[in-house]
Amino acid sequence: MLALAGIIDGINRAIASVLRWFALLMVLVQFGIVVGRYVFGVNSIWVQESVLYLHATLFMLAAGYTLLVDKHVRVDIFYAKAAPATRRWIDMAGHLFLLLPSMAALLWWSWPSVRNSWKILEGPISVGGIEAVFLLKSLIPVFCVLVALQSIAILLRLVAGEEPA
User: Tell me, what's a Pfam family for it (predicted)?
Assistant: First the structure.
């Protein structure tokens, strides 16, 4: 069980190590857009949309890693002052009854839109934009899978009596 959890952790760590460069690239592209527009009077919808694509990719694919390192939003009304055993039960219940069903529902309800987008190779959001909305929509199921896998890894550690990585 713990070996599987380690593999899942490794996947999300590897993805995060690549995605951290997306943040820098996004800042540089946005800076280029501002300089291009206000200094040189040049504008490109394609370049502007690239910031949206980078942002979406960064946040959708890094969500599993965020869960791994426990930097996600936590509503800790009871959790902060609870005993470790109570925290374990709260974590297990949250993963089993809230997070995993939410990821399953999001995957289920988004899949037709993603499938249809791929069928027609859905084009740009704006005229002159990036002709790959189908790739942007594909981030939704990948997000669901990465977060669900990380949730399973955390559950495996909780069941084994180990603290999540």
Answer: DctQ
In a domain, residue 50? The reply is yes
pLDDT band at 1, cuts 50/70/90?
Answer: confident
Q: Which of 143, 123, 126 is nearest to 134 (CA)?
A: 123
The answer to whether 58 touches 140, Cβ cutoff 8 Å, is no
CB 135 within 8 A of CB 52: no
pTM strictly above 0.70 = yes
Angle subtended at Cα 53 by Cα 31 and Cα 120, rounded to the nearest 5 degrees: 145
> How far is 106 from 47, CA to CA, in rounded Å?
29
Task: Give DSSP secondary structure letters for 38-106.
Answer: HTT----HHHHHHHHHHHHHHHHHSHHHHHHTT-S----TTGGGS-HHHHHHHHHHHIIIIIHHHHHHH
pLDDT band of residue 74 (cuts 50, 70, 90) is: confident
Number of domains composing the chain:
1
Give the pLDDT score at 77: 81
The answer to whether 14 touches 146, Cβ cutoff 8 Å, is: no
